[in-house]
Amino acid sequence: MSKEENNYSEEQEIDTNHLIKIRREKLQELQETGKDPFIITKYQRTHTSKEIIENFEQLEQKDVAIAGRIMSKRIMGKASFCHIQDMQGKLQSYVSTNDLGEENYKAFKTYDIGDIIGIKGFVFKTKTGEVSIHAKEITLLSKSLKPLPEKFHGLKDMDLRYRQRYIDLIVNPEVKETFILRSKIISEIRNILEEKGYLEVETPILNTISGGATARPFITHHNTLDIDMYLRIALELNLKRLIVGGFDKVYELGRVFRNEGMDIRHNPEFTMLELYAAYQDYNDMMNITEEIFSKTAKKILGKTKITYQGQEIDLTPSWKRISMIDSIKEVTGIDFNSIKNDEEAIELANSKNIELPDTKRTRGDIISIFFDEYVEKTLIQPTFIYDYPVEISPLAKRKPSDNRLTERFEVFIGGREYGNAFSELNDPIDQYERFKKQVESREKGDDEAGMMDEDYINALEIGLPPTGGLGIGIDRLVMLLTDSTSIRDVLLFPTMKIN
Fold it and tell me: Where are the beta strands (DSSP E) in 328-401?
């Protein structure tokens, strides 16, 4: 922090403390005179700011009632102007002693920026053409005891904006618009799935086994049962239990939790969409992925060709589809079809100076590492990368033509992964063996590896039909459609370090 900034910060703290003292004194005076705003329980509004502005011709000279937060005031003797802000925007009000009376007008002049008021009056336009309310009655509904941060200093601090999102939403209307769009995106996804016959369900957040993905879980303790439990890292296994139980199509939009690193793409808790359909495979999941992205963009933005962080992205189906091995060959010239075993793969990695973890030294692991190193960042336009190695796909069905691979894909846009899907593994014997390998990796120190889920094996033994499954990161999709840089920009309350 520069000397000038430090001086400003100290001055601001002094001024803020003084303003808080004055505001509390004002509240005390209101309470002592029987005008405590905090005892008011309800205010009947007739319109929002946007409704009044958009319907001026129908509302001109008609009485309305509106409520919101004072964002500006101009006191001019016996007449004043103020702007109040509600969820849909700002509206100006003309306030005068002739309409309110001297006592009420005097009270209005003491109101502070940030106070929440109700205004009753008639709609008109000022000489400058601004739609406004000519106030006939003003009610103080809530007293703001702390001033809003200074516009050009207090809100430059992104950390403060994320921590105190309520202030961010007040002062930066474009932030509110992002979250309105987020709600609309989720609503449209639900519409698409329900039209296709998917049933929305809810599954437990607390589980006795961490499963459904490879990730480090959060661990908590249930006092009554005296057992450790895990916050779910995926929705998958319980949803597939429902397919076993006879539901043909299910989906869940829910929070999942992963105890991992934080950056512009990762938050410890985030929202996933997972859906499963009996008698379908990963090709069907590619089709529905294209549909979800393109239809949602068209509905919310009115187009399927968008710009994300300066890059033109075309979400119009049909998207490029290429196997993981072929994508590596396309970018590097290396053909893993000619690499026959683990030893050859390790030798290749060494020749490229790629460090391999002790738990990631199979041919399949190394294919994945090469993809991450060389290919992912090149996938700007929507691309399905399919046929993943079995070593990194413990829940996906093997590819009939090559049992070292699985019928799995991930979708990439702008160099980032947005979704993951399988033809689901429904062979309980194969699944048991893959769980065992995950357990072995966990015992060797891989705390992201999965656990043995005996009940899920039991469900598969009862019988899971051929099933396609898909998971999409909702936060990343919202980032894409709102052109947001960081996942924190699309989470109302992102996880933050304690000050």
Answer: 383-389, 398-399
